[in-house]
Task: structure prediction
Amino acid sequence: MPAEFFGSLSNHKTPPTYKFFNGNEWVESKSKKTTDVISPIDNHVVGKLQVVTTKEIDEVIEKAKRAQRQWEATPLNQRIKIMHLVADWIRHFEQYLTSLLTAEIGKTHDEAKGEIVRTADLIDYFADEAQSLKGETLDSDNFPGFEKGRIAMIERVAYGVVLAIAPFNYPVNLSASKIAPALLMGNSVVFKPPTQGGIAGIHLARIFEKSGIPDGIFSCVTGGGSDVGNYLVSHDDIDLVTFTGSSDTGVAIAAKAKMVPLVFECGGNNPAVILPDADLHLAAREIVKGGFSYAGQRCTAIKYVLGTKKILDQLRPIILETLKDMVKPGDPRSPETKLVGPVISESAAIHIEEVIQEAVKDGAKILTGRKRKGSLIEPTILTSVKPEMAVVKKELFGPIVSLIEIKSMDEAITIINNSSYGLQASVFSRDEGSALNFAKYLKVGTVQINGSPQRGPDHFPFLGVKKSGVGVQGVRYSLESMSRLRPIVLNKPQ
Ligand code: G3P
Result:
């Protein structure tokens, strides 16, 4: 079945060269250039993606712009039906898409399957929620000094052409979390998948196409490096950019984008604060899950833990025991492997190793881990870390958690609020009241009390402040972010 459904995407060679979707057909780029998708498991070439030309990008965006009004005029219930079909096709191809994620990005089978199942449920939820988005009407005399006789009829309408740029760590889920709400709200979508994860991304694009999206409305352009990305984000006919990826890239895109709405989720570098009365076994489990899921390559991963000397002295042995129980690093294809497969590339692993070495040179100690074999890094916990070390200052997308000793909870607040990141923070305490009170001092998007940072459940608002993001995502919030208000005021002169 996958061969029939996806057969036309590639040239069927080994490794396959995939086409890009120009809005109505799958074609090879006239650039004749491709970029390799290298598996972090064994460095084999999983496949090749087209590197599209700027002319091809112009053509795709022109088609999207021309077709958008007709798409917005399509009854919402038809757009909803298409999204439910997308969700059903994703469920149908769960195993095949899961295998692509494992091969392309080294996600363990369980985590890859979890991403696919979650994506289908997310799309269904978006489609159902779109039904309940309502406009409103307002009367002029609600406001002092204004006479009766004017009524504002306020609808939600599309922006136009949405550019959706997805990251390697959730190439199906974080693509659909952008594409689905944008399409439901009547926008056209130009989708740019990551390089690694891009093969899964174009398979997702095929599912959207086959589910009945009309010609021109949806396209999928591929290409490594910044040329394609830079040209897309600065294009005059893009009306909104939604992006998930590193903070550095987010800052660069924001500087290039025209005066359009941005919906960004960027780096998190998330802290966990252990208050003196915390349940240390619970905290340890959440720190291990939060720090090492998908080898720490999540924007919501815990990267450093703040606690007093007394707390950290008690926590260290508990974390080591919990780590042994919850994590088994290895080949992501093996059912034995738990949480930690390889990071996305050997070069990324080498960089992580260098940052660890620098921290040790500056006085940090290795509590456990650090060894690297190819792209696989042992789950690593550093202790005696200082907040000014690079391993804390800059998000390190790998299986590393740093323990930082603080003298007071005020110091914890200062360290967190001085960070250039602000996605989430975890606060552990048996007294939820004091944790709630503490949470209000933290300059982050979301505070998790007695839990590790996470984007889900996906109907919760998800947002970052500072260099962690712009705008709000989450089911209803994404539908709202991908649409704007359009008031029409009826004036009845008295
Ligand atoms: O890194 C992407 C971010 O969205 C993480 O999502 O669901 O793993 O918390 P999640």
Summary: The longest strand covers residues 150-158. The chain has 16 helices and 24 strands.
